[in-house]
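[Automated response] Your request has been received and processed.

Submitted sequence:
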Amino acid sequence: MEKFTKITEQPSLYDSLEKKSVHELLTDINHEDQKVALVVEKAIPQIEALVERIVPRMKRGGRVFYMGAGTSGRLGVLDASELPPTFGVPPTMFYGLIAGGDIALRNAVEKAEDDPQHGWQELEQHGIGPDDTVVGIAASGTTPYVIGALKEARAHGCLTGCITSNPGTPMAEACEYPIEMVVGPEFVTGSSRMKSGTGQKMILNMISTSVMIQLGRVKGNRMVNMQLTNKKLVDRGTRMVMDYTQLPYDEANALLLKYGSVKKAVDAFKAQQ
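Generated structure:
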């Protein structure tokens, strides 16, 4: 007998979905989605406890590994992949690992999440150490791939946390800093890509963004270290340089392109004054 009830598997609060109009479906989904932010708000103390312990480790050169399967794994990969262009950090600071490997980003990989040893094996391939953090992501809180990795990571002195939609799960027991956001039954029964996925995305944004700010990758409210990967971002960066230096557009643009980031361009400008 399981020691907890999987709220993520409980029947939807809505029924006869196939009989509803498009407007009714959209309205009901939106009504359920509105609950997510309030649930995440209740989890802020848990999120804070984890972030407060991630930051000093990363200042010592530690990394963060997100681990999940299916939607949960994809969201971890998404968050990790967006940090280098947004904050100008190397892709080795945050990793997203998904059961079944990269092919699982687009396709379901049968039974990939059921292997409790494979997650730790992947972490070992990355040379995981005690300054690193492993964050498991699983709405159910029962994914063997994630739980096995968390147990081994914790035994080897790594910081461990998780994001789950059920209270009292095996995954929460396996880590030091569980984050439990109980969003309730999904609109389509058991479809954790919906409210659970939305809540996971919100919490991942909160973790990574607050860590990056604590590491000095934001100035004021600006992405001053963002990578200049397209015209839109070059224009945004140019306008940031204009704000900080009062230079005209063309001069700010030239300075930005010369130094490659807003921060470096502004620092160089100030050094010449």
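Summary generated for your ticket: The chain has a mean pLDDT of 95. The radius of gyration is 21 Å.
If you did not submit this request, please reply to this message.
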